[in-house]
Design brief:
transferase, metal-binding, Farnesyl Diphosphate Synthase, mainly alpha, Prenyl transferase, globular
Length: 324
């Protein structure tokens, strides 16, 4: 390959730098507490994979690879929506840290955090409406419904050892893949692409999103606080049974005892993590993530020249190689 997995974003470097600057300008709140809460969210930085995909797809689907102003704004909207969902996630899961930075509800309180999340959703909706494209509004606004659906599904299946991989994938779609798939599709709408192209990039985003979530869930088991920016085993503690645990249950039914005990203490969480690591569950989860990455890649490879989609392919490999 011509470029390494590390510099696949070189063509949009400037756009991503500008995006970070714009995000802070876009979050305008009259109340200082609300402003401070919103600003706190962008301190941790994060991977910015969602806006990066929007910008890269814009390059692939526009004439002369010129990214439109509306597509740059869509990238910003996508990151604001994602960040809003994290605030509500952190309240529900009672996370003290996110990307190594104090979470909003931990720094202020739950009430302020709920309002900050709602405020970000409202801001993103306002900017979305200002794109003046009804198809894009319809595509992206569906995501916010999916977030709620995903949270409800997750809440209803806490510590449920009967959850299947199919249930887990469905929940992962609502919580993560829906936003990535929809923003990929919305980018092609802004490029005036036909419905077949829109569908291709929606499916590409869907599979990338599912792989991304599976890999995040693997990290929750195998990583340290320094790498995660939050304690390992957070999903177990909150009763969110993810791919590694679901696969591990097939080999180690004794994990059911710890699930039924609702991982009462750190000792139980550590015991569960050690048990999972002794099984083939991590490898099976990696294989599942790779399956979705390969599905995403095949969608593009069938219809587009390697030269045009090289950076999108490298992004896909980067997501997978985070755990290698």
């Amino acid at each position: 390959m011509i470029k390494s997995h590390n510099n696949f974003l070189y063509s949009i470097d400037r756009d991503l730098i500008q995006l970070n600057k714009n995000l802070k300008k876009m979050i305008i709140a009259e109340h200082p507490i609300l402003y401070a809460a919103a600003e706190q969210l962008f301190k941790g930085g994060g991977k910015r994979i969602r806006p990066a995909l929007v910008l890269l797809i814009a390059q692939v689907t526009t004439i002369d690879q010129k990214i439109k102003a509306e597509q740059k704004r869509l990238a910003e909207i996508t990151e604001i929506i994602h960040t809003a969902s994290l605030v509500h996630d952190d309240i529900i899961d009672d996370c003290e840290k996110r990307r190594g930075v104090d979470t909003v509800h931990n720094l202020f309180n739950n009430k302020v955090a709920v309002l900050a999340g709602d405020f970000l959703f409202a801001q993103s909706s306002w900017y979305l409406a200002n794109l003046n494209n009804l198809d894009v509004v319809k595509t992206i606004s569906k995501v916010i419904t999916d977030f709620a659906e995903g949270e409800v599904q997750q809440g209803m299946s806490h510590f449920d050892n009967q959850i299947s991989i199919e249930d887990y994938i469905k929940k992962s779609f609502y919580k993560t893949a829906s936003l990535i798939a929809s923003s990929c599709k919305a980018t092609t709408i802004l490029s005036n692409c036909n419905r077949n192209v829109q569908k291709d990039f929606y499916l590409y985003g869907k599979h990338i999103g599912l792989a991304f979530q599976i890999i995040d869930d693997i990290f929750d088991i195998i990583s340290s606080f320094d790498n995660l920016g939050k304690p390992a085993g957070s999903d177990l503690k909150n009763g969110n049974l993810t791919a590694p645990l679901i696969f591990a249950l097939e080999e180690k039914p004794e994990l059911n005892y710890l699930i039924n005990q609702e991982f009462q203490n750190t000792l139980n969480i550590n015991k569960a993590i050690e048990t999972i690591k002794k099984t083939k569950a991590i490898q099976k989860s990696k294989d599942l993530a790779e399956e979705h990455i390969q599905l995403a890649i095949q969608i593009l490879k069938k219809k587009y020249s390697y030269k045009n989609i090289e950076n999108l392919l490298l992004t896909s490999y980067y997501i997978l190689n985070r755990i290698n």
